[in-house]
Amino acid sequence: MKSINGKVIWITGASSGIGEALAYELDKKNCKLILSSRKEELLQQVKNNCSHPKNVRILPLDVTNFEAMPQKGREAISFFGHVDVLINNAGISQRSLIMETDFEVYQKLMDVDYLGTVAVTKAILPHFVERKSGHIATVSSLMGMFSSPYRSGYCGAKHALHGFFDSLRMEHEKDGIAVTMVLPGFIATDVAKNALKGDGSAQNKDDDATKNGMPVSELAQKLIKAIEKKKMESYIGRKEILAIYIKRFFPKLLHKIILKSQVR
């Protein structure tokens, strides 16, 4: 894809954070947007904030309602007659020790971050195969490549995404379908505030690393470039992305660095 200008883009998790920022950046490129999340009122606000609201459709969606997903896929296609790009962005994080985390919290993290993403992808995949064209960009995390204390369930779900989408890429390259895994580092969003504690309630507080992270608009711009370049993986952040390479060549060193940093 040389340019994303004018393409039809379906974004999940579009009511805030990375998804909202993507909507504004793609709106500048005259893209036709399908915005999804559970929060219809916030989606309407995002639409109204776009310069070309006539090119924006709202599709309320709970990614954990797996049975409804095939119909949601058909609705997404019906808005503009086709979809060019799916951006899987819906997700939730976690901040709790394994010993203090209810099993139900792990189930929710897998349902939202992994199975929900798989369900949305499967809903649009036959359309992409039929058209012999399509691009799936999935927002993972650096935590999808290595792990950290307090994030066991989140890391597990993000690791699972890589296994699934690496397989999808191999199976459907022949169908003209591209897959880009996007691995953000610390981005200035509410991800830490919304992160689940061990009992399933929201943490409701920010952390310094997230608060001082890359501006979300900058992340959105880099993510769009990664899609245009059809990158297989894109690491987006500041110095924290070096951890990818430390993990690859010096895993024991990264283990010590993370334990010493006590990032929560």
List keywords for this structure.
13% strand, 264 residues, Rossmann fold, 7 strands, alpha/beta
The CATH topology label is: Rossmann fold
- Count of individual beta strands: 7
Distance between the termini: 38 Å
Radius of gyration, whole Å: 18 Å
What is the CATH C level class, in words? Alpha Beta
User: So, the CATH homologous superfamily?
Assistant: NAD(P)-binding Rossmann-like Domain
Strand content range: 5-15%
> What is the CATH architecture annotation?
3-Layer(aba) Sandwich
Derived from helix and strand composition plus strand pairing, the structural class reads alpha/beta
Number of self-contained structural domains: 1
Q: What strand line-up does the widest sheet have?
A: 3-2-1-4-5-6-7
Instruction: Report the uncertain regions.
Output: none
Instruction: Summarize the main sheet.
Output: 7 strands, parallel
What's the overall geometry? globular
Organism: Cerina litoralis
InterPro entries: KR_dom, NAD(P)-bd_dom_sf, Sc_DH/Rdtase_CS, SDR_fam, SDR_family_member_7
Domain Ketoreductase: 7-190
Family: Belongs to the short-chain dehydrogenases/reductases (SDR) family.
